[in-house]
Structure formats: C-alpha cells, structure tokens
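Quick question: what would this complex look like in 3D?
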Amino acid sequence: MTHLKNSFPTEPVQAQFPPALIFGTGKRATLPETLKNWGSANVAVVAADVLKESVGEMTRAIRSAGIEVRIVYCQPAEPRMKDFVHVCEELGEPFPDTVIGIGGGSVLDVAKLVAALGDRPGQLRAYVGKGLLESRKARLVCIPTTSGAGSEGSPNAIMVDEEDHAKKAVISPHLIPDMVLIDPELTVSVPPHVTAATGFDALCHCIEAYANKYAHALVDGFALQGISLIAGNIAKATNEGTDIGARRAMALGSYLGGLCLGPVNTAAVHALSYPLGSAFGLPHGLANAILMPAVFRYNLPAMPERYARIALAMGVGEAESPEATAEAGIRLLEDLIDQCSLREGLKRFTIDSSQFPELARQALQITRLLNNNPREVDLAAAQSIYRQSFPDS
Amino acid sequence: MTHLKNSFPTEPVQAQFPPALIFGTGKRATLPETLKNWGSANVAVVAADVLKESVGEMTRAIRSAGIEVRIVYCQPAEPRMKDFVHVCEELGEPFPDTVIGIGGGSVLDVAKLVAALGDRPGQLRAYVGKGLLESRKARLVCIPTTSGAGSEGSPNAIMVDEEDHAKKAVISPHLIPDMVLIDPELTVSVPPHVTAATGFDALCHCIEAYANKYAHALVDGFALQGISLIAGNIAKATNEGTDIGARRAMALGSYLGGLCLGPVNTAAVHALSYPLGSAFGLPHGLANAILMPAVFRYNLPAMPERYARIALAMGVGEAESPEATAEAGIRLLEDLIDQCSLREGLKRFTIDSSQFPELARQALQITRLLNNNPREVDLAAAQSIYRQSFPDS
C-alpha cells in the first residue's frame, strides 16, 4: 500500500463550455418553453431516423407553441461530408434561427455544422481544422440520445471525407451549443450493443483526457467523475437497458466526457481506432473498446500514477504500487468489455490482420491526437497494439 | 480497509456555467482582444481599491485599443446594498455595454449586479431571492483576484442589507459572466491571512456541495477536484505567496468551488458563519474555516462515505472504516488551519460566547442553506457547534 502522489497540471488553458444544461428524465418537455424564451420562430430539427416517434412528439409540442419546425432525419452513423450537404439541401430556405440536434454523436455533429455552415454547405472543407470557423448564425440545442460521443459538450464535429475516406474534424468554440438538454429517457431504447459501444467511447474520452500529455487540472475532475459514473453503470445500462438509474448515470458520464474533448481531447486509442472504422467498418465505440486495454498497458509506464487514479475512480482498491493499481484497473476494463459482450459484437466483422501495417501507417498520420499520448507510438508499437487487440485475426 | 461505496445522485438538475474561461499567468493581457472581438465600445470597470496598480495597467491597455473605460474602485469586503447604489451613481451615464469586475468575491458580486441592475440600482431589494432577475443588459467579465469566493462561477451576488444587517442573495443565471478570466499572477500579492481565509472559503464550497442533501453527480467531480487542488496547495500559497504553482492551483480550485454554488450550493457552515460576520466582524472565510471541523464532525454520521471520499480527495489514505477515513480528513483540515495560522488570526477579534444563543437563532433562519445540510441542525446543535469552534471564548 503506497500513497499516490497527486499532480496538478495548471498550464494556461482556454476553454468553452455550453452555458446551459437541462438534465433529467422527461425534461424534453421543457423544450418549447426554452424556444419561446429565446424568441425562436423558425426551427430546424436534425434527428436520427431511428427516433421518429419521440422526435414527432417533440416537434408537435414545439408547433403547438406557435413555432415553425422543419425536420430532416439522417442516418445515425459515420456521416460523410456529402451527407451534411444533403441535409442542408433538404432543409432548404429560409435559414433557421434555431437548430436542434437530436441523436447520437454523428447526428449532433451534423446539426452543429448545419447551425454554423448551413447557408454555405459546399464550403465545409475550408473549415476543417482548429479555430477556422468564425461565427454561428443560428442558436443551437443539442439533445444526445446515446450516452457516448459527448458531441453536445465539445467544440468538435467530425465527418468522413468521401474523397480520401479520412475522418476530418472542424473544431471551433462556435460548435458548442447554447443549450444541452439531456433526457435519459431517450436513451432507454438504445440496443445493448450500441449502449456498450457508445458507453466505452465515452469512458475512453475520460481516460484519454486524464492520462494525457496535456492533461489539465480543470479537466481532471470532469474526467475522473465521468470514469466513476460510466465504469459503475455501463454493464447494467447494457444488460438491463430499462434501468433508468444506470441510464441517467451514463448520460451524465458521457456529457462529462464531452467536456474533456475541448480543452484536452483524446489520444492513441482514438488515433488507432479511426483506420479500423474505415478499413473494416467497425463502429467507433466498439473499435475504441477493443483497443483500450492494449493501448493503456503500453502507456502505463509513462504515467503509472495517473493510470492508478483512473483505476481508483473505476472502483478498484489501491494495491501495493501505482503500477499494480493501474493494472487492476485495466483488468476491470477487460472484465467490463466481457460483461458488455463487446468481443461477441466483433464477430460480425472480418478483421484482416495483413492490413495492420497499413492501418498503423494511417494511424500515425493522426498527429493531432497522437501528440497528446503519454508515450510515443511508432509503427512497431501501433502494429503490436493491433495484434494484441485482435489476437484471433 | 473497507471498500467505499460510490453513489451517483442524478436527480433532474438545471445548471448554468460561464461559457468561456481564459486561465493562465499573464493572461490578463488578452482582455483588450476579447473586448474588440465583442465590439465593446463603452466599458465600466468595478475593481478592488487595493488593485489600483494592476487595474491601471489593464485599463490603459483597453484604452489603447480605442475603447472607452470608466473605473470605480470599491472596498474589498462585505458590501452593503447602499455601497452598490453608490458604485452605480459614481459610474453615471451612459450605461456601459460591458462591465468588468476585478477583485475578490465582494467586488465581483457588486460588478455582477452593476451589469444586471446598474440602470435601476434603487430596485435591488426587489430582486433578492432566486430567479427574479429576468435579464442582463451588459456583457460581463469576471476577473477574480483572490482564490476564494468563486463568485466568477456562480449565479449568486450577496449584499448586506443595512436595514436589518442580514446578508441577502440575488440568485439568477443572468449573474453568470460571459467570460471568466483567471490570471493567477493577480493573486500573488494577496497577504497570507487573506489567502488562508479565502482559500478555506473555497474549500468549504467544495466540501459543502459534496456532502450535501442535494449533492449531484454533475457537481461531485468539480467538488472533489477543487478539494484536491485546495487541500494540496493552501498551506504553500499562504506561507510562500510567491509560489506561482500553488497560486495557480488555488485559483483553479476556487473556480471549481464557484461552479458548485449554482446547482448545489453550501450548507450549515455557511449558515452558521453569516451571523459571526455580522456580530463580531469576522471575515467570511475565517469564520467558515473555524466552523468547518465541528460542523463536519456533527454531519459525519449522516454521510460517512461522502466525508470519507472528501478525505481521500484531500490526500488522506483509506482507513479501516469510512468513519475513520472521514475523521482523518477532518484532522487534516485542522492541521491545515494550524499551518495557515487561522487561529492566530482569530485573536484580532473579540468573540463573546454569551451571544451564541442569539447567533444560533439567527443562523437557523438561513433555511435556504440549512435545508442542504446532510443532518438537521437545531438550536442546541448550533450552539454546541459555536462552543466547540471557539473553546477559548
């Protein structure tokens, strides 16, 4: 039993957060009141097509308040740039005064871009990068319906560029919503494999922001609390989806994960995960979950104390050394991956290990994330992590 | 060695936070740029009079950017309602488009009210209470220069009503600034006894928000991280005031404490502390510090696990039971009070123990805070806490 040292990284930081949060079961009913207070007259809803019933109810309530609403439904996964353009065309004129995104991270990313660039969608590529977007014309409400991406709390919007199949990010404070509305009831119908995958994505945001070369004391608290909430509830939310307590905790944990993405962001798991999505169609959260143990074991020697604190936040007891505590945390992570049947989910995909060298090469180009990683990842390390993560391929 | 249970209170909550934070040594130099981006033309600065030199530099930089600035200096402690009216009169016409508060919690509270009610200061009493203020006309920047009150992150402004000598709070999302600028360099000149007292106030915000009947999983992470930052740095910031690392950690910790005040707020320590200020002139932070050990020992049986987690966040090792861990935390708190010479500071004040029954009666009227306390406080308990806290009186 050692005593863990604590560190307080307090370098200069600039951070933007959503100014208003409404959280609670059934709270989607408050939406018309907010829109009336804002004086919204012309609302565009961008929503996941699997949510037609709930979204229909919500838009009827908005219309009853005398506010015009248009809805565009879109596919809830991996939007391409041309999908964004298509959504904007479908919305048509006039440009809305308020955009409401309702869905998982991909749908919210589209909604965020509609609010900022909906009047000039063809220019999207010009804004890829950090801080290029200079304003947003429409008010923006984000209503997350999976507990995962944390897009509602982040300045990021990520699209697949169909020209080179790479994921590209527009990052700007103007992509942070005016209001986040989290109604955990909307997550109850999310199927187990999606709950598990998106939940691990959220857990990964928190862990990668905490064990990060640019970790910051401002964000450390969000991250550790997100880790506690998710690790303590993901198995129950996955396997007993109607447990509203677990759903509430997951919704809050994933929001806290989103708050980590602006000031600190993620690291090697996310960088190595992106090519797996492009090459084999692996969902983002599932790819992250499968990679996490091997990446964290690789990183552990660089930050044993931080990985130990992550383990404590997950609910592990303190062991004889920071390294041992951290390793117990990684074992608990593997246990949660099993409890959530994520390796089962992997069987639907064909992973071709002969592609690992090429995937590693692609991953190493995502320097905006790899620069955050506590330990340098080279080609050999990246390939080794892929092999450890997919031992049966 | 037991294993601590974790709890995830996730009741409905509505929370507002400052949308932008700029944090870092020397970052006050970025202020003119922010004002230019906003298009500010007519700025009012409300500042603590002890800061004339730094404030002079900052306003010169703003003027050099072609922006008009007026400054009103005010006393840095316990403002009365008539002080607020006086500040508004001194500012005069026209009403500014932007208000910048620079100072400790009291000065920031005045600045917040100037931004919201500066055009009708005589109506202040009509807005005492929660949610009565319906808008704010001016943009608002808060620049805290003590690491204490956390006013920059809270929807509260507290004034002494000179008619009945009671502290009264205006609470509204419209009192949350558009931007918080934390430049820890501005706190370096704060003298030791003020650093200690305001730092304990900040620690108290975090602890009372975490060990609270209305504790919330959203806020728990802010609170625990604030506790770690403050407990780990308050002795150094007090006794080696030029240690910029300790100052940075304190500035961030007190900001996190401020973020706790909106959604959850404080409890019995703050309620029992207010009458001590009115009766004996005890500074708010000092009064809080002296009361904390006795109040927390009284509360401990109602929430042993939460007080144990507070102790762990303070850096205490886990003991054989939650109660023992929690008690070790309270002993560390007493140790920090000694290291910061707060009981020495008490010698400047005359505490008349014959007034304790009357003070207890007054404290029990502050139900907006006592309702949050994990254990009911009656007259006998309040008096007993006063006696334990001032054994020499």
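Answer marked as accepted. The radius of gyration of chain B is 20 Å.
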